[in-house]
Amino acid sequence: MSQGKKRTRITALFISLAVIVLLILAGKTAAVRPYLSGIENGFRNVLAPIQVGAMVVYDKFSAIPDYFGGIERLKTQNNELYDEVYRLTNEVTSLTEAKEENERLKDLLNIYDTVNKEWTPVVTDVIGRESASWYRTITIRGGEDKGFKKDMPAINGQGLIGRIVNVGKTSSDVVLISDAYGAVGAMVQNTRTVGVVEGKDGASDELYLIHVPYDAEIELYQTVISSGLGGIYPKGLRIGYITDMETESGGLMLKCTVKSFVDFNKLEEVMVLTPKIAEGGA
Amino acid sequence: MNGEASPNYRIFAMLKLNWRRNFLLCLLILIVFVLQFGFINALGRGFFTPNLLWLFPVFAALLEGPQKGMFWGFLMGLVWDIFVGKYIGLNALSWCAAGWFTGFLCAKLYKENYLVPVVALAITVISSQLIYLFFMGILGGYWPSFLAVVKNIFFAVIINSVLAMVIYVPVYKSFTEGLLRKRLLSDAE
Q: Which of A90, A100, A239, B45 is the most buried (most CB within 10 A)?
């Protein structure tokens, strides 16, 4: 065999081996992992202070257009207030309806009590966003040092954000509910119709409420909350409101577009819900 | 055997001769990492986010050939994989293949044309993303909709092409006659 052919074969063998090794590694890391490897932890620990510094600078600069863009801001606020008026009108109408609805409100209060009894919110801030690929995740300050664990829910004042998927020493990754892997068991607040909220596609913040029977009493602007099914998220966390609905191709199910209460592009502080039972046991 | 002609001697001599270029490249990589992971990811919105790391395999493939495109694609893909934390190795593999493919396709192109980086970047982004999505579907069972794929790749190509076009001219000049020009042993003699 000539020297050239031998070298070509060795190169081909090396490339094939490298491809196989990389694919095995990718396969092993495809699923959500509870802990990060040493290399990833090291990388994130180096990155964390840079991201914190960058966010400080970013916040300063992002305030400049806000200052000059007053009219645009007012327009946006006006639109948001219109949305809010629609939602509140709907809620007020619902509240003045029959006894059944009063029962539901009582249930709601119980839900909030349950959440407060069983979870302790730990406030932390967002130090990075993973926005340039097929996933919708954010990085938050705090990991094992704050007692964060995989699958702990993250919320903010507006509603449900997502859940922790990776825990590092000083930072954690939160997969947003708009991610393809961030599906949440959900229900329509007024009618208690159960479904699943999932991301619309890999790159937008829009949500779908799926697995809803075609004859369910769904109306626009109804509020969607977490159902508590699945065991990760507590029941009753606000997710969004329905903006559109269509019958799925089979004709048996409805697919509703849900506008999230949370603006995922403007996340600054989040609350991680840590279970009180785990704290007591630790 | 003559020590001066040994491969080790040649490597050390090249490193010594190009220390300023290598130092600048390291500095450039560091700046790009800080910009990308610190600022650009925070400022960007989905696929409207420029990815400076893509420029390394694109420019390497254009200016130094498919093998260098492959090397830089692997390196930057791996860094991106570690940052993303999912399917580690898949970006390294797809960017590596895309770097080689870009270098192979652009070998005959006239490099002093503004459209060259746009074409090269489009080839790199499209091929790397298609390879990535293919294996992500096989390994993880996640297949995004056709419309989402087209939309996302389209925006990624557009925004990064603008970036590549702006940066290409100074990089090209620097690589051919400036601080990033690779000096050969024959230059020193």
A: A239
Q: Judge if pTM exceeds 0.80.
A: no
Output the six-digit token pair for A81.
Answer: 């207030």
Residue B84 at interface with chain A, using a CB cutoff of 8 Å: yes
The structure tokens 């000059």 sit at A68
Residue B183 CB contacts under 8 Å (≥ 6 apart), including other chains: B17, B18, B21
The closest CB to that of B87, out of A26, A128, A204, belongs to: A26
Asked if the C-beta of A63 comes within 8 angstroms of chain B's C-beta atoms, the answer is no
Which domains does chain B carry?
47-182 (1.10.1760)
| Inter-residue contact A241 to A221 (CB < 8 Å) | yes
Q: Do B92 and A22 touch (CB under 8 A)?
A: yes
Find the mean pLDDT for residues A271-279: 76
Q: Which residue type, as a one-letter code, is found at position B92?
A: A
What is the Cα–Cα distance from B89 to B141, expressed in whole angstroms? 17
ipTM for the complex? 0.78
In A, residues 147-186, which contact B (CB 8 Å cutoff)? 166, 173, 180-181
